[in-house]
Design goal:
Blueprint (H helix, E strand, L loop, with lengths): L1 H51 L3 E4 L2 E8 L3 E10 L5 E8 L4 E5 L3 E2 L4 E9 L5 E11 L4 E11 L18 H4 L9 H8 L1 H4 L17 H10 E3 L3 E2 L11 H13 L2
Length: 258
């Protein structure tokens, strides 16, 4: 009887060990199959996403350019890829500000072909965290946008040139030319003020221009400025773009916002 029990116990142990080994093998197989399924699913999703991005693709879409001293130029490069099955043409490249220039190496791209987009940012008159973007448009009107951020460090005031500010060079494209021919205060503000002070003068890169109780104080700030590099006088007599009539219209509109 004891002998039979021993044999039965050994058989049970053998069966249990075999079953456990089989379970481990099955678990391993299940894990492998699950991983393969996930890989196939992920690849399918990637292909689907790739099909959705149909046009010119910018890479990277977000780039941190680090720290730079105010007044220096920052250079960066992006890749433009033609993600279509046909020849694509770059018909327009627009930067968010006149201080940023974006030039592609070539404008005609075969299917799947790459080219380089060269970026040049002039940091004159800027301080703190700055964000710029470029928008590329193809012949079908499809657009792609990339963003660049940088931190502009204040330069040594003893080395600054008082005659080099936002009304000079590339900056004039944003801070001088758009004001030409504008009559209404709202139009003048949108043309040369909104990019720094916010769409409704609530403050953005530069302080707000609302909340003034005295018309003459606000008029003096607009005309004479506070700082020759960062908030210069916008009156023509100070090298700015605005006539006395434009300044009057602008200040009148700003006072109406309160």
């Amino acid at each position: 009887m004891a002998w039979a029990l021993a044999v039965w116990r050994d058989d049970c142990n053998y069966c249990c060990a075999g079953a456990w080994s089989l379970m481990k093998r099955m678990t391993f197989i299940h894990i492998v199959l699950w991983l393969l399924l996930m890989a196939i699913t992920t690849a399918g999703c990637a292909d689907e996403i790739g099909l959705r991005i149909h046009g010119l693709v910018l890479d990277p879409v977000m780039q941190d350019l680090g720290d730079v001293k105010e007044g220096k130029h920052v250079f960066a490069t992006l890749l433009i890829r033609n993600n279509t099955q046909e020849v694509a043409q770059i018909i327009d490249v627009i930067a968010s500000c006149g201080c940023t220039e974006a030039t592609p190496d070539q404008t005609i791209l075969a299917a799947g072909e790459f080219t380089v987009l060269n970026i040049d940012i002039d940091t004159t008159g800027k301080t703190g965290r700055v964000k710029k973007n470029v928008v590329v448009t193809d012949q079908a009107g499809r657009q792609s946008t990339a963003w660049m951020t940088l931190t502009v460090l204040a330069a040594d005031p003893h080395t600054q040139l008082p005659d080099h500010g936002i009304f000079d060079g590339a900056c004039a494209r944003c801070h001088v030319m758009p004001a030409q021919g504008k009559v209404l205060g709202k139009e003048i503000f949108a043309a040369v003020c909104a990019m720094c002070h916010g769409a409704k003068a609530q403050g953005a890169y530069a302080p707000k221009l609302t909340g003034f109780d005295d018309v003459d104080t606000l008029k003096t700030i607009v005309s004479e400025g506070l700082d020759p590099r960062h908030m210069p006088g916008f009156a023509k007599k100070n090298g700015g773009p605005l006539t006395p009539k434009q300044i009057h219209a602008l200040v009148k509109w700003l006072m109406s916002l309160d």
